[in-house]
Recover the amino acids of this structure.
């Protein structure tokens, strides 16, 4: 008896769950065999169960599946002679052998058709100039990187340390705020800007174009007064402190403002918030404020659905800020594949919303990805659903990296839009592979370019986790070794997505790389770790790579 088919048939969906097709011929044949009286009662009862399952599933079955199910009936209520049964078994063995050979041939063809990573043609080689930890004279266990930029030719990173839950019982605990400056020759200096017995900051950033940090501090429980402060880095002093600003929007007091999301290129910050409107409608609102608390511009956007944004603002392509948003959609899609009609509903689309420099103007990118729900459940349609998912960029997500208190989406501005590090979950048996990581160039109007970088990751034996944009819109990717058992790499890629140079990099002991900063000649990698074999407080780590 067929040990795979029969149990499966017993578990099929009950009658009435799906529309029935025309299986009357097959059902009549089963009834005829049952009524013949030539079979055991146990097999008859099993056949009746299989008959009911067949009737319930009829509307979903293609010809091949229906034929397979009738073969299961033949094994329960046989009508063939012993010689005929043997001939069928021999035919099945031959078919199975041919199927195995076809799968092997297909796998070999896929391997042969694997996209070229371009690594063999790379002649450029980067080198490590300097690397190491920066110590600190306190032992707070929590370590958060908040922001980074380039200022006067130097890379800057601001980070804080604060107590663990156990350390809060000590009388000497504090929250410390540091700024690290890194030079192109690999040197680094660290400044302790402030320390105080407070639980930290609601938001913290480097002020672009100034030797200052901007922070939002809260004085008590949620809803308590909040203040927006500006500190001098070299002076290690408070320059100004004002009540945290808020803005009026078309939705008035309904907006719940979050702490500021990030700095703008002109030395200001952007606040965002949301407001619940009608059912399944959300207002995404924002405003830009100067360090003295002046509101410089504001706006809002009504979005179908309840999802709004990540908690991190990506740099904008024009000095403002960029947010990945999810938009609710209700659109039916119908396609023809292999003679079968495939239907699905698009329920969500992801786009990048750019808030321009004055905060009063915005624009949206082309669609980055979609979420779909199949509306057709027959097996023929489900067979081709992966093709529709690939065509409409479903099962694609924007990668993110947890850094400090933020989940940073992998979006970077370029001249005409953005580059996005995406991951597509696709059928690994496709003749043309699509599963894995892609770099996507997106503008206001279209997806301009897609580069499949999974072959590059495989050749280097790394997982690409973050990237940055260098001079002339060149891309620098960082990949950590798979299972942390090999070498980490950075890859310099041209503006069109072709690899130009690679460099082996060092991962901080007992830690990880959390970001990169590029200049004309190379890149700074930074993160955290602890240099001892026994767990201790984290230290800041950096490495300078030149190309």
């Amino acid at each position: 008896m067929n040990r795979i088919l029969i149990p499966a048939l017993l578990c099929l969906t009950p009658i009435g769950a799906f529309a029935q097709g025309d299986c009357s011929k097959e059902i009549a044949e089963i009834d005829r065999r049952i009524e013949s009286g030539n079979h055991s009662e146990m097999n008859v009862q099993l056949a009746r169960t299989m008959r009911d399952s067949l009737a319930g599933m009829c509307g979903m079955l293609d010809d091949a599946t229906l034929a397979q199910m009738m073969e299961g009936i033949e094994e329960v209520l046989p009508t063939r002679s012993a010689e005929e049964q043997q001939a069928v078994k021999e035919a099945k063995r031959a078919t199975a052998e041919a199927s195995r050979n076809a799968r092997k041939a297909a796998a070999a063809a896929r391997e042969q058709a694997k996209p070229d990573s371009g690594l063999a043609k790379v002649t450029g080689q980067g080198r490590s100039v300097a690397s190491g930890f920066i110590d600190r004279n306190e032992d707070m266990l929590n370590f958060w990187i908040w922001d980074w930029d380039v200022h006067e030719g130097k890379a800057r990173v601001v980070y804080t340390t604060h107590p663990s839950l156990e350390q809060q019982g000590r009388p000497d605990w504090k929250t410390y705020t540091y700024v690290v400056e890194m030079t192109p020759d690999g040197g680094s200096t660290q400044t302790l800007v402030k320390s105080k017995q407070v639980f930290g900051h609601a938001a913290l950033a480097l002020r672009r174009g100034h030797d200052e940090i901007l922070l939002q501090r809260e004085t008590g429980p949620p809803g308590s007064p909040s203040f927006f402060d500006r500190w001098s880095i070299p002076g290690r002093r408070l320059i100004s402190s004002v009540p945290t600003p808020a803005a009026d929007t078309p939705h008035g007091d309904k907006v719940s403002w979050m702490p500021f999301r990030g700095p703008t290129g002109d030395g200001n910050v952007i606040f965002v918030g949301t407001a619940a409107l009608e059912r399944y409608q959300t207002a995404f609102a924002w405003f830009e404020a100067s360090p003295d608390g002046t509101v410089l511009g504001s706006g809002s956007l009504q979005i179908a659905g309840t999802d709004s944004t990540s908690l991190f603002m990506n740099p904008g392509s024009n000095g403002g800020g960029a947010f990945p948003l999810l938009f609710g959609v209700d659109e039916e899609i119908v396609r023809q594949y292999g003679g079968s009609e495939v239907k699905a509903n698009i329920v969500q689309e992801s786009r990048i919303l750019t808030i321009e420099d004055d905060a009063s103007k915005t624009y949206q990118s082309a669609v980055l990805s979609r979420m779909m729900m199949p509306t057709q459940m027959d097996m023929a349609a489900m067979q081709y659903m992966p093709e529709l998912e690939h065509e409409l960029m479903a099962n694609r997500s924007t990668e993110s990296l947890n850094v400090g208190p933020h989940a940073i989406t992998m979006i970077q501005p370029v001249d005409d839009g953005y580059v996005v590090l995406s991951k597509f979950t696709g059928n690994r048996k496709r003749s043309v592979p699509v599963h894995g990581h892609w770099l996507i160039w997106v503008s206001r109007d279209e997806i301009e370019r897609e580069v499949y970088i999974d072959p590059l990751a495989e050749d280097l034996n790394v997982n690409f986790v973050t990237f940055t944009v260098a001079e002339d819109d060149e891309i620098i990717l960082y990949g950590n070794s798979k299972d942390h058992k090999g070498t980490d790499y950075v890859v310099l890629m041209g503006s069109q997505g072709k690899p130009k140079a690679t460099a082996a990099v060092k991962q901080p002991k007992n830690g990880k790389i959390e970001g990169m900063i590029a200049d004309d000649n190379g890149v700074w990698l930074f993160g955290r770790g602890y240099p001892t074999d026994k767990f201790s407080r984290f230290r800041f780590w950096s490495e300078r790579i030149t190309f």
User: Anything to note?
Assistant: Residues 1-20 have pLDDT under 50 and may be disordered. Residues 507 and 513 are 7 Å apart (CA to CA). Helices lie at 5-10, 24-35, 41-57, 63-76, 82-112, 379-391, 454-460. DSSP finds seven helices and 34 strands in the chain.
